[in-house]
Design brief:
This protein is an all-alpha fold. The chain has two domains: 229 residues, no CATH class; 203 residues, no CATH class. 82% of the residues lie in helices and 0% in strands. The chain contains 19 helices and no strands. The longest helix is centred in the N-terminal third of the chain and has 38 residues.
C-alpha cells in the first residue's frame, strides 16, 4: 500500500521518460511544420557558404585571408543583431500565443529601433575607418590588409539591410511562418553565389572585381533577402507586415520591461562571441597545423549541427507561443519532449559523424597527414559529446531564454564559458602545452557545468514566465 502511494525512483523515472518520448501525432506535425524549413534554410546556407569560400580562395592566400578576417567584424555585428532580434522574439512568440498582434508588432518595433542603432554603430566605422578595423585582424603592412579595407568599405552598406531583415525574419518565425525566411534565405544565397561567380572572376559580362565584387554581391543579396521578407509580410497581411504607427510604443513601462528582458540576451551573444574568439586565439598560438585541423572540424561540424539548431529555434517558437497562451503545464511538457528529442538526435548525429569523418576528411587531400590525423581525433571527441551539447543548446536558448529566464541563461551560458572553459583551455595551451585535440576537448568542460546546473533549474520550472499582459486582436488575417 505504501509503495502504491510512493512510487519508486525507477517508476518515477519511467513515467518521466514516457512523457518525454511519447509524442502525439498533432505535436509531431506541429514540430515538423516549424522545424523542417529552419533545418533546410541552415543546411542550404552552410553548404553554399563552403562554395562561397572556395570561390574567394581562388583569388589567392592574401585575398582569402582578407575576406576571412574582415568577415570576423561582420560576424560580430550579426551576433549582436541576432541577440537583439532573438530577444525581441521572446515577446513576439508569447504575444503570438496570446493572440495579441498589437503587442507582437510593438515588440518588433522596439527590436527594429535597437537593431538600426547597432547597424549604424557598426556601419560607420566600416565605411569611414575600414583601415582601423582591418588592423585589428591583419598586419597593416601586408597585402591582405589593403584588400580587407576594400572589402569592408564595400560590404558595410549591407549591415543596415541585414539588421532589418533579421528582425522581420524573427517576427515571421515567431508567427510560425518559417517557410518565408527559408524562401528569402535560399533566394538570397543563390543570388549571392551567382553574383560572386560573375563579379569576382568576370563572367556573364561583368568585369573581374576580385574581393570588391564579393562585397558588392553580398550587398545585392542583402537587398534581395529583405525584399522577399517584406513582400510576404505585407503582401499576405501577416503580423510582421506592420505600419510605423502600429509598431510605435507609447507605454514606457513596456519599453523598460522589454529592455530588461532583452539586454541580457544581447550581452549573452556578444560575450559568447568573444569567448569563442579566445578559443581561436589559443589554437592560433599552437601553429598552422592546429588552426587547419580545427578549421576543418568547424566546417564539417556546422553541416551536422544545422539539425540541432533547427530544433533549437523550433523549441523557442513552441515554448513561447504556449506560454503566451497561458498553458504552463503544456509548455513544460513540450520542453521535455524537445530536449529529449534533441538529445536523441544528438546521439544519432554523433554516430553519423563517426561514420562519415574519414570520407569527409579525405576531401582535403592537399593538407598534411598530421592535420588530418588531429582532425580525425577532434571530430571523434565532438561526435561523442554531441548528445549533451544538444541538451545545452535546446535548454539554454530554446527553453530557458524563450521562457523569459534571460538573466539565468546569460549567467549559465557565458559564466561557464569564462570561468571554466576559457581559463582551462588557457592552462592546457600555455602551461601544460597539450596537443590541440586535447585543448579542444577542454572546451567541453563548460558544457558539463551547463548540464549539471541546467538540469535542476529546468526541473524547478522557475523559467516558466508568461510575459504577455494585454488581450489580443484576433481579427487579423494570418494565412
Amino acid at each position: 500500500m505504501e509503495n502504491a502511494k510512493n512510487p519508486s525512483v525507477f517508476a518515477r523515472l519511467g513515467a518521466f521518460l514516457r512523457s518525454c518520448y511519447r509524442w502525439d501525432a498533432p505535436f509531431v506535425r506541429w514540430v515538423a511544420v516549424i522545424v523542417l524549413p529552419l533545418i533546410l534554410q541552415d543546411l542550404v546556407g552552410a553548404s553554399l557558404h563552403i562554395v562561397d569560400s572556395l570561390m574567394v580562395s581562388g583569388l589567392g592566400d592574401a585575398a582569402y585571408s582578407a575576406v576571412t578576417q574582415a568577415n570576423r567584424y561582420s560576424f560580430l555585428f550579426q551576433l549582436f543583431c541576432f541577440g537583439t532580434a532573438s530577444g525581441g522574439a521572446i515577446f513576439m512568440s508569447q504575444y503570438w500565443g496570446a493572440g495579441d498582434i498589437r503587442g507582437m508588432r510593438q515588440s518588433m518595433g522596439i527590436s527594429l529601433v535597437a537593431v538600426l542603432v547597432i547597424s549604424v554603430l557598426f556601419t560607420a566605422p566600416a565605411l569611414f575607418a575600414p583601415q582601423v578595423i582591418a588592423a585589428w585582424f591583419l598586419p597593416p603592412t601586408g597585402q591582405s590588409h589593403g584588400l580587407a579595407v576594400t572589402y569592408l568599405a564595400a560590404v558595410a552598406p549591407s549591415y543596415v539591410l541585414i539588421g532589418i531583415s533579421t528582425v522581420y525574419s524573427m517576427c515571421l518565425k515567431a508567427g510560425e511562418k518559417t517557410y518565408i525566411p527559408l524562401i528569402a534565405g535560399v533566394v538570397s544565397i543563390a543570388v549571392n553565389t551567382v553574383l560572386n561567380y560573375a563579379m569576382i572572376y568576370g563572367h556573364f559580362g561583368f568585369p573581374a572585381m576580385g574581393v570588391y565584387g564579393a562585397a558588392v554581391a553580398t550587398d545585392i543579396a542583402a537587398v534581395v533577402q529583405l525584399a522577399v521578407n517584406l513582400a510576404f509580410a505585407y503582401g499576405k497581411r501577416l503580423p510582421a507586415g506592420a505600419t510605423f504607427r502600429q509598431m510605435r510604443v507609447r507605454d514606457r513601462a513596456f519599453v523598460r520591461r522589454f529592455a530588461k528582458m532583452v539586454t541580457p540576451v544581447i550581452f549573452n551573444e556578444g560575450l559568447w562571441a568573444l569567448g569563442t574568439t579566445m578559443y581561436g586565439v589559443y589554437y592560433g598560438r599552437m601553429g598552422d597545423v592546429a588552426v587547419a585541423a580545427t578549421g576543418i572540424c568547424s566546417t564539417i561540424d556546422s553541416l551536422v549541427w544545422v539539425f540541432i539548431f533547427g530544433m533549437m529555434h523550433a523549441t523557442a517558437i513552441i515554448i513561447g507561443k504556449t506560454l503566451g497562451a497561458g498553458r504552463k503545464e503544456e509548455a513544460y511538457l513540450y520542453a521535455k519532449r524537445m530536449i529529449a528529442g534533441a538529445m536523441l538526435a544528438g546521439a544519432a548525429l554523433g554516430a553519423v559523424m563517426i561514420m562519415i569523418r574519414q570520407p569527409m576528411l579525405s576531401l582535403y587531400g592537399g593538407l598534411s597527414p598530421e592535420v588530418i590525423d588531429k582532425a580525425r581525433i577532434i571530430l571523434l571527441f565532438g561526435a561523442l559529446t554531441m548528445w549533451f551539447r544538444a541538451f545545452n543548446c535546446i535548454n539554454v536558448v530554446g527553453v530557458l531564454r524563450s521562457g523569459g529566464d534571460t538573466v539565468f541563461s546569460l549567467l549559465l551560458d557565458v559564466g561557464s564559458m569564462w570561468t571554466i572553459g576559457v581559463p582551462l583551455c588557457a592552462l592546457a595551451t600555455f602551461v601544460f602545452r597539450l596537443p590541440v585535440e586535447y585543448v579542444y576537448l577542454c572546451t567541453f568542460s563548460e558544457e558539463i557545468v551547463k548540464v549539471a546546473i541546467g538540469v535542476p533549474h529546468f526541473i524547478g520550472r522557475k523559467w516558466l514566465k508568461n510575459l504577455t499582459e494585454r488581450k489580443g486582436e484576433p481579427t487579423l488575417e494570418n494565412d
